[in-house]
């Protein structure tokens, strides 16, 4: 029941902003990026969580009906191990892989700060505010990280920025010596 309450609460929060788009948050600045996998990430995490809850409730019933409790210790250990993987490891792994997926990114020009909206462990939206100077690009390409905001890894798709200049500024490419050198030549 808890997970259902969180999701329905999000729906209520979004509907209460009736006059404007659900993604307009003037306090965060202007919307510069919207991840196209947000619904997929939420759906997969929700499915994973709900199957875990289902497994927890069904485990005693399955053990009772199948008589596994009477079998050897090895069979019991294998059974608990398998159920444990699907019940705990999968949701935790999914959360670790998707926690940095940026659903929306806002930018405040006047203070040069970004607000990244991601999903937290209980499927609610979480806002992370950081300055452009806090952005660090990993030395080697990482699978689930485009950049680090302070120490938090963030994943964005560069092609989904409506204005490529917003991506260049986020990554600090507009400040690099390469661009300044080109400007001097012109």
From TrEMBL:
In Gene Ontology terms, what is a biological process of this protein? mitochondrial proton-transporting ATP synthase complex assembly
Listed name of the protein = TMM70 protein
Sorted keywords for this record are:
Membrane, Transmembrane, Transmembrane helix
Name the source organism: Daphoenositta chrysoptera
State the family named in the UniProt similarity comment for this chain: Belongs to the TMEM70 family.
Q: Does the keyword Transmembrane helix apply?
A: yes
One short Pfam name that applies is TMEM70
Annotated coiled-coil segments of the chain:
none
GO cellular component terms given for this protein: mitochondrial membrane
Record-annotated membrane-spanning stretches? 46-64, 76-98
């Amino acid at each position: 029941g808890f997970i259902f309450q969180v999701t329905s609460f999000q729906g209520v929060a979004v509907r209460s902003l009736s006059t404007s788009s659900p993604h307009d948050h003037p306090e965060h600045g202007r919307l510069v990026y919207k991840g196209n996998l947000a619904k997929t990430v939420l759906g997969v995490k929700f499915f994973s969580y709900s199957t875990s809850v289902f497994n927890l409730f069904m485990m005693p019933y399955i053990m009772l009906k199948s008589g596994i409790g009477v079998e050897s210790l090895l069979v019991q250990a294998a059974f608990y191990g398998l159920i444990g993987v699907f019940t705990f490891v999968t949701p935790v792994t999914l959360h670790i892989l998707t926690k940095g997926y940026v659903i929306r990114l806002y930018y405040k020009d006047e203070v040069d700060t970004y607000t990244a909206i991601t999903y937290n462990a209980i499927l609610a939206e979480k806002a992370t505010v950081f300055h452009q100077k806090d952005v660090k690009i990993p030395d080697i390409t990482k699978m689930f990280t485009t950049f680090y905001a302070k120490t938090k890894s963030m994943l964005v798709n560069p092609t989904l920025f409506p204005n490529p200049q917003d991506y260049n500024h986020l990554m600090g490419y507009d400040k690099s010596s390469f661009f300044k050198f080109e400007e001097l030549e012109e």
